[in-house]
Structure formats: C-alpha cells, structure tokens
Amino acid sequence: MESTEKNIAQRFLRATALEQSMDPPAAAGLEESLAAKPAAAGATVIPLPEPGLLPDVNVNFLELVELRSSIRQYSQEELSLEDLSYLLWCTQGVKMVLPNGDSRRNVPSAGGRHAFETYLYIQRVAGLAPGLYRFLAFDHALVLEAGKEEIEEAFLASFKAENMVKNSAVAFVWATIPGRMYRRFGNRAYRYLFLDAGHVCENLYLAGQTIHVGICAIGAFYDDKLNRVLGLDGEEEFAIYGATAGKM
Predict the structure, then answer these.
(1) How far apart are CA 119 and CA 132, in angstroms?
(2) pLDDT at 29
(3) CATH 2.60.40.10 describes domain 44-49+61-247
(4) What are the distances in angstroms from CA 83 to CA 75, 151, 178?
(5) 16-20: long-range contacts, CB 8 A cutoff, minimum separation 24
(6) Is the sign of the CA dihedral 136, 139, 141, 143 positive or negative?
(7) Nearest Cα to 47, choosing from 170, 174, 133?
C-alpha cells in the first residue's frame, strides 16, 4: 500500500476512533434530524401490500446462504408489487416505532438510528409506471419522485456498470442522512453508516434468493452525478450504496 493510501486510512481511523466520540454532539444541543423524510405536499403516494399479508416463504437457511451469489443478468419478466413490497420489508421494514423516534427494523443499525432513505429506479414492476420512487418506511409506501423520461439518461450514466442497471427491473440506491447518526455518535457515526449499509444490502441478497430475484450490489457509481439525479446535496444526504434486482 502506498504511503498516501496509508495516511488516508489512518486519518479516517483516528478521526473516527471511539475515544474521539465519547461526548456525543447531542449533549451540545445539535438539532435532531427527522427519522424519515416526509413526502412532499401533493406527491403521489402508493401504498404497498401489507407485510403481514405477504405469502409465507419456506426457507432452507443453509441452502439459502450457500446459493447466494451476485446475479448481473436478468430476464424481462416483471416483478410483482408483492415482490417489491417483500424486498423493501426485508431491507428497511419498520417493526416498531420507539418513543424517541428511533425504530426497530428488519436489519440492525447502530443505536436504532437507521440513517437511510431508499430510492428505487423502477422499470419493470407490475402496476407501477417506470420512474424514480422513494420508500416511505414508516408508511410502507412509495412516493413518486420523477418519471423515467425525466431522469433515465442521467441516472444510468451515474453507474460504471450502466448496462446492468439498464437491464434490471429495479435499481436500489440507499442514501444516508448522516446527521441522524452523527448526533448520537459523533465522528464514530461515519464507520457505522457504512457498516449499516452492508447489513441492508445483505438482507436484499437473501430476500431476493427466496423469491428467485437476482441481486447484485453496486459500489461503483459516480457520487456527484448520482446525488444530482436523486436531488441530494451530497453533504446533508448522499448516496452510499446500491444494488440491481431482476427476475432470473
């Protein structure tokens, strides 16, 4: 490893060391971030099938783990709305809302902060017009952010594996609002954000495997381009991870 790379790594580790984060910013009166971004006034909100009404899936867990792999090629078959609801429930579904606004979800998160918003570039989901959506986790619903024709070219150009995204039924992008985590943990939050993103994507892999939906994680995206097309400022909220999904 080059010395410059070592220096970058060491600076990050020192700046986010637990010893540097023993006095959380909340104690200094830093304003609390909202637990979720609300839908804009007048936005189109689409309820998803209720998680409790989704069909049960019998799983051989050992086989599930052994067969899990990254799938980069997809058929042209649509996902059902139930498929999408299931994948979103397994990755960011809210099981319990806590009195302080934190939540218990189907993935772990440091301090129960769940500092993510899930954006979905939908191309082939039955009953949904193609376009950019955002998952409203507390409502288990989608909000339409933009039509496909408005963002298609810019969205696809944001990824190194452009063709894989183009051929997917749905592309997931998880964006983080670091203030949700930072207020509780200070600089240590920046380690937790990336760890939490991994938890979410692994649940997507495993959930997809149970319903014959292929998944491939994406880390190779152009940050500024993707943030712009999602309407994010790149500081208070920015894209942190992504994945494609489609029927195998």
Answers:
(1) 7
(2) 54
(3) no
(4) 15, 24, 29
(5) 16/187, 16/188, 16/190, 16/191, 17/188, 18/188, 20/186, 20/187, 20/188
(6) negative
(7) 133
What single string gives the DSSP state of each residue in 194-217? HHHHHHHHHHHHHHHHHTTEEEEE
Q: How many angstroms separate the CA atoms of 65 and 191, rounded?
A: 26
- Residue appearing with tokens 């880390």: 219
What's the whole-model pTM score? Answer: 0.92
Q: Rounded to whole angstroms, how far apart are CA atoms 171 and 168?
A: 7
For 13-17, the CB contacts below 8 A with 24+ separation are 15/187, 16/187, 16/188, 16/190, 16/191, 17/188
Give 152-170 pLDDT, tens digit per residue: 999 999 999 999 999 999 9
Where exactly are the structural domains of the chain?
44-49+61-247
Q: Are 120 and 142 in contact (CB under 8 A)?
A: yes
Instruction: Find, among 84, 81, 90, the residue nearest to 202 by Cα.
Output: 90
Q: Note the pLDDT tens digit of each residue in 14-48.
A: 989 988 776 777 655 555 666 788 888 888 899 99
Burial category of 41 from C-beta neighbours within 10 Å (exposed 0-12, middle 13-18, buried 19 and up): exposed
Q: Which residues contact 31 (CB under 8 A, 6 or more apart)?
A: 183
- Measured at the CA of 60, the angle between CA 54 and CA 65, to 5 degrees, comes to 100
